[in-house]
Specification:
The complex is a heterodimer of chains A (about 210) and B (about 475). Chain A is about 40% helix and about 20% strand. Chain A has about 210 residues and is an alpha/beta fold. In chain A, helix 2 (about 40-55) runs antiparallel to helix 3. Chain A is globular and about 50 Å long. In chain A, about 35% of the residues are buried. Chain B contains 14 helices and 2 strands. Chain B is elongated. Chain B starts with a helix and ends in a 15-residue tail after the last helix. Classes of the chains: A alpha/beta (about 210), B mainly alpha (about 475). The interface of A and B includes residues 24 and 90 of A.
Chain lengths: ~210, ~475
Amino acid sequence: MSARLVLTVAALVLGSCARIEPHNTGVYLLVDTSGSYNRQVQKAEQISLYALSRLQSADSIAVARIDTGSFTERNIIAKATLDDRPSTANQQKRAFASTVAKFVDQAVPAPYTDITGGLLQAIEFLNEKNTTRKEILILSDMKEDLAKGYVRDIALDFKGFDVVALNVTKLRSDNFDPRQYLSRLDTWRDRVEKGGGHWRVINDLDHLEGLL
Amino acid sequence: MSITRLLTVTPWPMVSAAIWFILVVAALYFARDTAHQAIRATASALARGLRVASHAVAHAQKRLTARNRAVLLAAGREAKERVVEREFARVGDTVRSDLAGYPDLHRRLSEAILRIKEDQEKAVEVPPEAPGWAQAVKVVTQLGERNSTADILADIRRSMVKAHEEAMADYRKASGERHSLLRRMMPDWRMIQETLERVNKVVESVLARAVAIDRHMEEYEAIVRGEDHAVSVLSSSSIVYFFVSALVLAVAVAGTAINFTLIARPMAEMVGGTNFIGAFRTADIAALVIIMVEISMGLFLMESLRITRLFPVIGALSDRMRVRMIITTFVILLLMASVEAGLAYMREVLLLDELATNSLLRGDSTASIVNPHLWITTAAQMGMGFVLPFALVFVAIPLETFVHSLRTVVGLIGIAALQAMALSLRLLGNVSRHAGTLTERLYDLPLFVPLWIESRLLPHPALRNRPSVKAGSWREAQP
């Protein structure tokens, strides 16, 4: 009896002293640079700065462009995992903000829009970082336009992911037939939710409070 | 069996009800004695059990009271011993510092008195020489003018004046010498007076201490005898000490919280901001550990200085070892305080860095303007970081008082709780007894008709005096 008590107490003490996993967040921002959306790229800086201001030590962030072929590391413009030490984390944030600002200034319009490839890259990146919370932000009109030869008809595994479509602008054709816009959003919602993820749309970038 | 079925034993429900009522009353009447006995036994058992429990609790309360009294007296005796010991130490210090040079003082006084005596002997007044001419002049004046006494008298007068002048000169000279001797005595007199005043002061101080020691000794004897008055005084003092020390400890806790705030953020730079031990950040735990180490060092310092007596082992160390311990703990405290001052400075730097980063991320340029008076807060934080560890040293004093008075206060609370419990149990015992009586009466209520008939048919008192109504059968439960 007493031995059992000692073992229980020891287990409790060791359990309380055990190192627990930090509740960190991973953010992956996909920026559409296609011809139809390139004018909106400026807003990527605003979103990335907001995300940086919300992130803490041990959180990860990456900004990647969506262009003709997005499933590649070359599309990642900036990525960082914030250091344990707050001062180093602040330096990383400043450097990250500077890189994003440079990208926004020099963004070149892409002929095609490979959103699925970007999402695959985002899932891969965030799974690799193994963060507790995974957020994929997509700054795009959500109109996928694949170049010839690109196969993107694949199931995406969004388990544990929050996918947020930001500033989903309406195309000229949407004005003629709004059903296209609604159908586009519904298609993406279905894809994300079928993959086990959670889908949201935020079009008002002045109210990003609920984003992270 | 439902009520409806019961009421259908006859075609008339009222008749059925009446039949059932008569049957029930008859059954209750025949089972009356047994039922009364059962009720009485249950109530009595319950009351007895509660009374026993009340006795047990009262006994425990008495034991706790005795123990609390013993603890209180022991604590009071120890405290009084310390006070008397301190008074004796003060008397010893006074005697050592002021009366250690008494032989020298005595020698100086004796020398001064000897000098005064010699000077006084030298200063004895010599009376002027009596003029020897007065009788001769008288004789010469009786001789008559023929004997040319006038010339003689004139000569005598001259001689007398001359002699008088010489005598006066001698007298003045002697007086001057005596005055100079007396003047020489003045410093000696002053020295004697000052010395005696000093001795008087010391003696008065010793006498005052002796009075205080007498008073403390009387109180000590009262404590040793275990007088109720002494216990009462100690008890009330203990409660006062408890609340006062609790208040001071609360202030110390607030100081600790401020100290924690000062160093928790920069600690994240040292041990990382995302590591956790259990549910707590490692940086927070590290900051707390630093503060706890400081408080521990403060306790050891106070123990080594013999200001507090929480650790008898430290108090029993040799003086040499204690001095070493004082130096060691003080040096550690100094290092800790310096580290804290550095961390407090680092906190300000980190805060500014974070503000600058946040303002950059918000695109706010005004927030990055540096306040020229910011050094004041930085200096204040560093000062607090340095001073607080030393201030926390003094936590040892209220902590010791709190620990000592806590025993008494907890004992008093325990006594009060046990008293209340014993009273409640006693009350419940009585309630259960009376509840038994009430239940019997309620049982008899529907049986009033058969009971009335019984009283008519069997008027003999021996038959009517049932045990349930015997006088004195329901004693009040006594503790």
